[in-house]
Design goal:
The chain has 136 residues and is an alpha+beta fold. It is built from two helices and four strands; from the N terminus they run αββββα. Keywords: Bacterial flagellum, Cell projection, Cilium, Flagellum.
Length: 136
């Protein structure tokens, strides 16, 4: 693996973590988004899945986003008979988003992003030193 492969792998990791951060932010923004009619489904939490991507030419493996899917876990029910989406019993389906889970996922994505950025910076520094050695 050469320097450009290392930078490419780090960049792929950063793109994947950016997608993960974007989805966590969307989930947090919609944590209270309910349906607008009686019994309607609320916002459903989104989840990012990754896959390995192999560059056959270089033999280097990196990561890409496989898909952004929906979490199929159950919705919470909240008693609020005045809500426009309340069912006959007065319960409203609430999104299956946990703010704590989304914040933890955001922190994990941030740390992974930073690790990839650090790898890229170290690689760039090593490349600059190698070029300087060749000049001398």
């Amino acid at each position: 693996m050469d320097f450009s492969d290392t930078i490419g792998v780090s960049a792929a990791g950063m793109r994947a973590q950016t997608a993960r951060l974007r989805v966590a932010a969307e989930n947090l923004a919609n944590a209270e988004t309910t349906g607008s009619s009686p019994g309607a489904d609320p916002y459903r939490r989104k989840i990012v899945t990754f896959r390995e991507a192999l560059d056959r030419a270089s033999g280097v493996s990196s990561v890409t986003v496989r898909s952004v899917g929906e979490d199929q876990s159950d919705f919470q029910m909240r008693y609020d008979p005045a809500h426009p989406a309340a069912n006959e019993q007065g319960y409203v389906k609430m999104p299956n988003v946990s703010s704590i889970v989304e914040i933890m996922d955001s922190h994990d994505a941030q740390h992974s992003y930073e690790a990839n950025l650090n790898t890229m910076q170290v690689t760039r520094s090593m490349l600059a030193r190698a070029i300087n050695l060749m000049k001398d």
